[in-house]
Structures are given as C-alpha cells and as structure tokens.
Amino acid sequence: MTPETKQNLADPDSEAAEIRASLMRGLPEIPCRFLYDETGSELFEQITHQPEYYQTRTELAILEAHARDIGKIIRPLEYVELGAGSGRKTDLLLGAMDTLECCVLTDISEDFLKESVARLRVAHPNLQLRGLTADFLSNLGVLGQSKRRLITLLAGTLGNLHPGAVPGFLRRVAQQLTPEGGFLVGIDLIKDPARIEAAYNDRAGVTATFNKNILSVINKRFEADFPLDAFEHRARYDTENSWVDIRLQATRPVDIHAKALDLKLRFNTGEEIRTELSCKYSPESFAAVAQDTGLKIREIYSDNEGLFANILMVREDG
Ligand SMILES: C[S@@+](CC[C@H](N)C(=O)[O-])C[C@H]1O[C@@H](n2cnc3c(N)ncnc32)[C@H](O)[C@@H]1O
Fold first, then answer.
1. What is the full DSSP assignment across 159-217?
2. From the alpha carbon of 84, which atom of ligand 1 is closest?
3. Ligand 1 centre distance from Cα of residue 118 (Å)
4. pLDDT tens-digit profile of 190-223?
5. Which 8-state DSSP code applies to residue 249?
6. Is the beta carbon of 87 within 6 A of some atom in ligand 1?
7. Does the residue 265 lie in any domain?
C-alpha cells in the first residue's frame, strides 16, 4: 500500500466464497473484475488499439468534441473516474475543465492505477490528484462527501453489469453526488452484430489472450491449476439480450483443483465458463434501465455513425 492508494476491496474470505459459488453454477462464471491484474490491464490497453475495436477511438472523439460543454454544464470541483485504467480519457477531460480543484482515480488494478496516477500528476501539476484502489460495485461509499462532483464511468464498463444490476448501481452513484453534480457514462450502442462481434474477436488475438488471463489470475489468487491451453476464447453477440457473451470453452476434458477454494471441478470438451457480458444499449433502452434511479439524462453525445454514446446524467432533484 502506498500513500496514493487505499485498500477498499472485498475481504479474501467473502471473495473466495463468491468465486466458489459462481464456479459451481450450471453455467460456471468468473466475475469479470478478475480479468484485471496488471497483465490484464496492459492487455486491455492493447485491445483499445486494435483496428476492430471501434469503441475507444470513437469515445475519445466524442469526449474531445464535448468535454468543454460537459465542464460548463456541471462546473465540477472534483472529478472522480471509476475504473480509470490507463487514464488516457482522464487526461483529456481534466484538460478541458477549468473549475476543477481535485481528482480521484479509482480502479481495482492497483499497480496499473499507480502508474496512471503518476503520469497524470506530471500532466496536471496544479490539481490535487489521488488514486484509490476500490471496487466500484461494492464500495462507492468510500468516495465520501464532496462539493460539486463529476463522476465518470467510461468505455463500455457499465455494459459489464447485467442490466438487472444497473438501476441499483445508478442509485448508488446518485447518492455520491450533491444535487448539482453529474455522472458521465459511456455506452456502446446496439449496431450490426458482425461489427460488434469483430471487436471482441480481433485478428491479432489480443482479446483472446486477455480473456484467458482471467485463468492465470484465478490460478494465482486461489491456488488453482486451470491449464490455459485447454481453453479457447469465445465471444458471441446475443441479439435477444443485446449483449456479447464472452466465455472460455474447454477444448479437452480437464480436472481442476482450486486449493484455496476447496473446490474440484471437471470440464468436458465444449463446456464453457462465462467471463464477461458486454451489454449494448440504444438511447431508449438505456433510458428505460435508468428510470427511477435518482438520476435523469441531461445530454446524449454520440458520433455520426451512432456507434457509441456518452450520456451525461444529473440528479433528478438537481
Ligand atoms: C473496460 S476497462 C476501461 C478502462 C478505461 N476507463 C478506458 O476507458 O479505457 C475497465 C476498467 O475498470 C476496472 N474495473 C473493472 N471492474 C472494476 C470494479 N468492480 N471496480 C473498480 N474497477 C474495476 C478495470 O481494472 C479497468 O481498468
């Protein structure tokens, strides 16, 4: 632990119980936050540069065009980014908002976060800037009281939540804002399924490596022995649910022992583990899940092709 970071993660026992229960489901799952150790964060950064991955370059262009407007609407004193990753978008937003006094970057990937915070401190020496290692799903309260705050959750990260979990999450975000604050969220829009699937099956195979890295993380954290070469990356767009279902499929029968979970599992050829959902929305379907959450949509910023949107929400009572 360093002065810049503070441990606000799940305690190891409840985390072990959670992962044990999710691996024992009919369709075994590993929560997607386990994709992100330092290697996972570096691989995600590489994904953002793949030609098929339209999301990052599209969102960067949207933010470049509208960051000043967002700054004028909210006039934030504090900027908080959830799941900040490399901080590339943070840099752009901080540069466009002249009312800011301080900035908090949060992520679960502690070492990667430290590097991002160090880079941003050099680029923005007049801002009080700190990193906070925290899980934004279970521990938003750690942000504490603030004056006028802009919270952001960029990329398609909100899409990693099951749609049923989104209203509760938005309610918790609303509680972290004073009435004049704002929440800026990135939403990957529903589009041609082939275009979406290509983004999660890049030709260079970076997404496949990123997905399999989750098994290395589980092996290290829970003394497990998943053989990475016995699983293949699968990412399919489910048009009925408007989500990309990302899985690892066993290519041969394998027996797994996770000592720290006191768990033995067998995967037969073709059996799968779900590692991530990436839900896509239309502006209308997002408005529907955001109803009655204490937040209302103030602005929707998008690109000419309608690939991606950044939605600015404010408190209903603001
Ligand atoms: C899809 S990446 C987006 C990174 C960056 N914001 C961007 O726009 O490129 C998701 C980020 O959220 C972090 N993350 C994922 N689940 C998290 C959680 N439950 N709590 C905190 N951070 C999380 C990951 O470590 C990663 O940096």
1. GGS-GGGHHHHHHHHHHTS-TT-EEEEEEEBP--HHHHHHHTS-TT-HHHHHHHHHHHH
2. 6
3. 18
4. 999 999 999 999 999 999 999 999 999 999 999 9
5. E
6. no
7. no
* Amino acid found at 200: Y
The answer as to whether 132 is a domain residue is yes
Closest Cα to atom 17 of ligand 1 = 33
The number of the ligand 1 atom at minimal distance from the alpha carbon of 139 is 20
Give residue-wise pLDDT tens across range 97-140.
999 999 999 999 999 999 999 999 999 999 999 999 999 999 89
How far away, in angstroms, is 35 Cα from ligand 1 center? 10
Q: How many structural domains does the chain have? A: 1
41: Cβ below 6 Å to ligand 1? yes
Interatomic CA distance for residues 3 and 118, integer angstroms? 12
259, burial (CB in 10 Å: exposed 0-12, middle 13-18, buried 19+): exposed
Give the CATH number of the domain where residue 190 resides. Answer: 3.40.50.150
The reply to whether 176 falls in a domain is yes
Instruction: Provide the residue type at 117 as one letter.
Output: V
Establish if 243 belongs to a structural domain.
no
Calculate the alpha carbon distances from 161 to 53, 151, 152, 275, 308 in Å. 20, 17, 15, 12, 17
The DSSP line for 25-48 is SSS-B--GGGG-SHHHHHHHHHHT
Among 215, 217, 210, smallest CA distance to 229 is for 215
278 lines ligand 1 (CB under 6 A): no
Lookup: tokens for 54: 């339209």
Angle, in degrees to the nearest 10, between helices 38-47 and 206-222: 170
- pTM confidence score: 0.96
What is the spatial distance between Cα 4 and Cα 2, in angstroms, rounded to a whole number?
Answer: 5
Reply yes or no on whether the pLDDT at 8 is more than 70: no
pLDDT at 1 over 80: no
Containing domain of residue 105, as a range? 1-228+280-318
